[in-house]
Amino acid sequence: MAYGIIFDLDGTLADTMDDLKTAMNSTLAILGYEPRTKFELLNFINNGSREFVRRSLPTAVQTENFIIDSALEIYGQEYEKCFCDKTRAFTGIYEAVQVLKNEKFKLGVLSNKPDKFVKTIVAKLFGFDAFDFVLGQSDLPHKPDPASALFVAKMIGVKPNKCIFVGDSDVDIKTAINAGMRSIGVSWGYRSVELLTETGANYIAESPNQIIEHAKEVIRITRLEKKMKKEHENKELSIYKQKRG
Question: What are the beta bridge partners of residue 184?
Answer without folding.
Answer: 166, 203
